[in-house]
Amino acid sequence: MHEILPHLPRESRVLDxxxxxxxxxxxxxxxxxxxxxxxxxxxxxSRNVVQADAARLPFRDHVFHAxxxxxxxxxxxxxxxxxxxxxxxxxxxAALYVAVPDAGTLSDRLYRWLGRGGGHVNPFTSAAALGRxxxxxxxxxxxxxxxxxxxxxxxxxxxxxxxxxxxxxxxxGGNELWLVVWNYLFRLWDRLLETRLAVYGWALYFGSxxxxxxPTPWVNVCVRCGSGHQASSLLAVGIVTRxxxxxxxxxxxxxxxxxxxxxxxxxxxxx
Length: 271
Prior knowledge:
- By secondary structure, this protein is of the alpha/beta class.
- The chain has helices at 79-89, 106-114, 127-138, 176-193, 231-236, and strands at 13-17, 32-37, 49-51, 64-70, 90-101, 142-149, 199-207, 220-221, 228-229, 240-243, 247-251, 258-260.
- β10 (240-243) and β11 (247-251) form a beta hairpin.
């Protein structure tokens, strides 16, 4: 999303689609953000929050300068209608960001196994096929794709808001330190053996994107809040430190959790 949001003019309108808790900090940007979710506003918060079905958006044609669908399309029952509605409400030169899980990854399979589906009703298995489908429905050209990595943060007991399924105790019981170690090992295996253990899915970009799209996967993903970070950015702000003389760690800029730092590049195929 960083290729879009910081570059939008103050007068822009952005729709955060299917994001009950918000895909980004709207107070960090001067433009108007509308959040829409079928479950409505959490915790009584109602400022610029609309409760509605994504297949029947309550907005006029071509009113949004950008639309963010961050981890939401996999939950929409009538996906074709939702995509047509996206094409209707955004401007012809709008920017569209879509992030979805790859249904063939360990991360998504584990999520669906633990949550008995986890609300994922659309199993995406090809970034290229999804890109063509979105372009056909919205009229916006597909201009880039980046592989997204996981941290298995949904296994972290510090993020649970309800009692977890008993199955979670078969995969570490929510221990954050266990997740930190396994995330590093998964990335090591991916680099050495060309596996995809640390892959979550894809970020797809459509339309007029204000900044250049960096296709390099962000391998450093926080085990608590799930925020992804560029290795170069973490180094630039000086939050990467050493423990025990050789282990590099960083404290997540968003939530403060301690993570092992991965500084080497891993190449993943987008489809």
